[in-house]
Amino acid sequence: MRILITNDDGINAPGLQVLQEIADALAGDDGEVWCVAPAFEQSGVGHAISYTQPMMVSELSTRRFAVQGSPADCVLAGLYDILKGRAPDLVLSGVNRGNNAAENAVYSGTLGAAMEAALQGIPAIALSQFYGPGNRDLDDTFDAARGHGLNTVQRLLDKGVWTRDDYGIFYNVNFPPVAATGVKGIRAARQGFRRDMGFGVEPHISPSGRRFLWVTGAGQQQPTSPGSDAAVNLDGYISVTPMRADLTAHDMLEPLKAIE
């Protein structure tokens, strides 16, 4: 198996090393794992691509490349330049430091990479590690992902639904904020929504007197509706959410016929 891995936390992020271990075990001795990741952190860039500027690609070691671009850029660079048409069998993105459940998924560069792979017809899985009181003080905050990542990916490959239609399925996996021994299992879960928990901005004045805005987030421990991703994560389960890049609100098409 040939696997392409990437992330949005950057080429030196500890979660990428966890993903490398998962991919190496999955590929086996006869497989190949290619790492093509952003040279610098790209958290929050979503599915952005560097459409108006070039990107520099640096080979750091065998099958390991840093790209001055977004996670989606990294997938494109991997498919069309670094692998030179030898398409991977699977794209894995992560393991993100922090959850990409609920509304976080909309902003996530980790998911942006998986989405681009799916648009290119490649099976893809995004993996993220939820942080909270149950794991933030562990020596290995990625313990749940490290301990259960390989099994989760293998179960998705064996039992997941993989489509080859125009907007193919990709998967969003979030590991709960607990130690590996505290993980209760895997749950298929819809994307949730944290009410009154959105992003905002906070102004700051620099030493030079210039005014800047920092984007602010909110606490992540509020559960979403029962059975949705963040809710099952906070209950100790790994969430697996099938996704598509199709943004159509299909449930609204029939009511909208009133305008015709």
UniProtKB/TrEMBL annotation:
Major localization listed first in the record, in broad terms: cytoplasm
Occurrences of domain Survival protein SurE-like phosphatase/nucleotidase (ranges): 3-195
EC class name: hydrolase
Co-factor remark: Binds 1 divalent metal cation per subunit.
Residues the entry annotates as binding a divalent metal cation: D8, D9, S43, N96
Family (UniProt): Belongs to the SurE nucleotidase family.
Location(s), subcellular: Cytoplasm
Classification via NCBIfam families: PRK00346.1-4, PRK13931.1, surE
Record's protein name: 5'-nucleotidase SurE
Stated role: Nucleotidase that shows phosphatase activity on nucleoside 5'-monophosphates.
One GO CC annotation: cytoplasm
Alphabetical keyword list: Cytoplasm, Hydrolase, Metal-binding, Nucleotide-binding
Gene Ontology molecular function terms on file: 3'-nucleotidase activity; 5'-nucleotidase activity; exopolyphosphatase activity; metal ion binding; nucleotide binding
E.C. number: 3.1.3.5
Known catalytic reactions: a ribonucleoside 5'-phosphate + H2O = a ribonucleoside + phosphate
Cofactor(s), by name: a divalent metal cation
